Write the structure tokens for this entry.
Amino acid sequence: MYLDKFNYRFVLIVSVAALVFVLFACDKEETLDAPSNITASQGTYMGVVHLNWAAVPNAHYNIERKGTDGNWLDAGYISTPPPFDDYGFNLSDNKIDFGTHYSYRIKSVSSDYDDSQFTNVSNEGWAYVLQPININITNENGEIKLSWSDTNAFVQNIQYLWYEIQEKYLDSDSYHTIHSTDHLNKGNRSQTYSFASNSESDLTAWYRVKASYSYKYKNMDTETNGLCELESNEQTISEGGNGNETSSYQWNSLGSFGSCNNGISFAKTKNYNNVLYTVILDNPSSGNPILYQSDGSSFNNISASYPVALQNSFSDVDFTVMSDTKYMAGVSDSAYVYSYNGTWSSNLASNNFGYNNKPQSISIESNGQDIFTTIYTYNNELVVKKWNHDTVWDDNINIINSNSISNIEMIQLNGQIYLYYLISNSSYNSTLYIKHYDGNSWVSDLEWTRDNLMEVKISGDANNLYFISNSQQPDNWAGSAFKVSSSSTVVDLLTSSEEWIVFPSSLTVNTNGDLMLIYTHIVSASQVNPELAVLKNNLWSKVSGDYTNGVFPANINSTNQDFFFIYGDAQNISASYYPINLKVSSLSEN
């Protein structure tokens, strides 16, 4: 009996030990399979060698790379299924050497299983080698045209790309950028840029194109973006014409107008049916609007017997003319719109257009058939309303709701109404929107973003739409003039050759297609003159004349082929340092 108990205990102990052994044996790690079918890309991915293989269940992966020295280096680790992009981990600067051939091996790893052996060595792989960008440059009739061909734009993993056109004169050691394209999609073929030549006679300039490619790759387990940059070959060309060249016009003084003892800081000039009108405020900070009309030889006050409400203090006003009826709009203690055709109407904008509070700003314009107002409401809505010639302003469109809108203007060009405004994106970055009304809806002409846009003005003819901008940061940028080239792109009309054209403030285009603008000539700390420049046949030149007696505010406008220059009289300055009256001269081409 004792022996039976002993045998029983012995068998029990042996059985338990066997069970423990079996359990231990079952817990021992199995060996993972090695990855198979490993492939390495051969010059088809930018910035990386793209690896792929057949995934192993439950595995993570260690990837090693062999370079030209024959040594294997750790290239990375991923805990996710393939693929893997080798961007150059453990290499110099952690970057792949474009064009260098590498071999790869991979092992499966896990905390639950034994690691596999490394795979067989892959085929050789290498990153895409950037191909040269070849440019061509011509100068025809004063217009420089750059074109280039870029096969790099089609690489598989590119997200987007952009180009910078760079210029350098022979007396300079470095290039500077004169134009940057918007971000373009992979494969975009928009690879031309034209601009007006305007440098010293026979001065030679070098040009090149700098391309930037943003590409996507998998950095270990994380999707990320890389950047490659490439500069094209250089091309040189002789240019002609600069600020030393002048255009001669016949100046004819049309006298002065707008006598205001406190000074004039605001003036706006418009052209309706080749008749010029100018509105001013009779006080620098805010004042009463006074409207003047040109009869061809002088400007005459046509705003006698103003309604009492229009004698309030306005900081800004606008006006339009349709069928000899003048419309004046502004905001003071309320919104006001009055019409005048021999007598003044009552307020056409009673009760602030139906809003609870007065708008922040108002613009008004006509297309010869209807009157439109653009209102920036107290609730930050930018809305357009149309006058039904009775008692009601019909809602035309709600443009946008934003608390960052500025520079809201309307202008009639070639019988169409244009609306333009800025929306601030950050402290110094804004997007410019330009739209026109085609009779049924508002059509976008431009949506374009740039730093330091300010005090934008537009003009144009039947073929071209132009605009100018002053600058929020004068030390960084002096403003410029632009031509709209598409709904999202513009051509900068001023290059480094036109450094004398700074802080433009007004522009116009005559029936010849000549663009004339007012720029700022800083003679000294105490003398700042508005002066004229003209772009004819793609060449800029100064308009010859005596500007010493002119100060801001200043406007330029045109009727048919002639230009009209309106500016403050520097010989009659108020105690607040603003001109007491304005002077006007017509300019006819000799």
Remarks:
- Helices lie at 2-27.
- Confidence is low (pLDDT under 50) at residues 10-28, 240-244.
- The domain at 134-238 is CATH 2.60.40.10 (Immunoglobulin-like).
- The chain is about 5% helix and 50% strand.
